[in-house]
Amino acid sequence: MNDLTPEDLLAALAGRYSVGPKQMEAPAPTPEHLRLAAQLALRAPDHLGLHPFRFVSVAPAQRAALGELFARAAQRRGLDDTEVAAARRRAHNGPALLAVIGRLREDVDDVPMHEQWMCIGGAVMNLLNALHLLGYGAKVVSGLSVRDAEVRDAFCAPGEVLVAWVIAGTPTRSTRARHDERVDDLLTEWLGIEP
Amino acid sequence: MNDLTPEDLLAALAGRYSVGPKQMEAPAPTPEHLRLAAQLALRAPDHLGLHPFRFVSVAPAQRAALGELFARAAQRRGLDDTEVAAARRRAHNGPALLAVIGRLREDVDDVPMHEQWMCIGGAVMNLLNALHLLGYGAKVVSGLSVRDAEVRDAFCAPGEVLVAWVIAGTPTRSTRARHDERVDDLLTEWLGIEP
Fold first, then answer.
1. By three-state DSSP, how is residue A23 classified?
2. Domain presence at residue B67
3. Residue B87: inside a domain, yes or no?
4. Distance CA B154, CA B152 (A)
5. Is residue A67 within 8 angstroms of chain B, CB to CB?
6. Structure pTM?
7. pLDDT per residue over A1-43, tens digit each?
8. With a CB-CB cutoff of 8 Å, which residues 93-152 of chain B face chain A?
């Protein structure tokens, strides 16, 4: 660990903010960096080791095919031609594009569904942390495409769900908080119970 | 960022594993370190900035009161005296003990509940990451106490939910993976759609 101070490490993580598609450019994370990021996702607390998530990378050569899926989904939602074209273009967002796939288990009494969703959230958090530490910017995007059955079935096995997309690339500018991060009651002390 | 390499930073995070109550001792994280950890939790992706979580710390002086709550909850579940005593003792686990409180919003169409749970999961992930980087061990525990109405009401405002407990302290030994982390299909490449 050389001379790393805890403050250095925390500062590195605390500087991570979402980077949108217009704030990033090539190069995309290398396959090895994507693999490292996916590995760090496995460090999310995962009661009973259910691994309720996996990631699927969409290669540049497949972006056009994904665009057609997005366009058809937009048509099914009744959008007009301009909006359908915008949906098609979204498949080209980000030098790298990952699908986050959820594989939730309803038959495990000890791990309720919300805990499995928390595990997926922790996994995505660490995927983003790793990409950030490796010098990339990234953002989770969901939107209506993930709820479309044809899009889902193009990525998911039966029983799986399409959770979100993660776009990643090289940031072109520094980013910062989009929301006010002052939260008065973020950490308080328990006052106990009434006598 | 001095001489930190991405590999150093990733390695520091990748070495985080859950540390159970029997694998930790005093000192607890300082109030300032707990505050830093809670702040890092705010870096979780949080669509629309809903802040669906907060943390409540249980001071040493309040552990006995919490133990009585746990004991009454165990009695309500019909447990025998030995199990009730064990439930009471669990309130003393960990040099530090935090309640994770969820404040989920069902009235926000753009952010479905599972995305809010993912935000809470990402927040807890970063709380654990920060405590680890600061030299502490920690673990998320839930169990049946969080589902008890009296325990919940002692921590939560109306509409909030008691999600889990986080115990934290100084690790007494090195920890490692409890589950096999080889996941064959963790990251695959999209094969596209059938022609």
1. helix
2. yes
3. yes
4. 5
5. no
6. 0.95
7. 456 788 888 999 999 999 999 999 999 999 999 999 999 999 9
8. 98-99, 114-115, 117-126, 128-130, 133-135, 139-140, 142
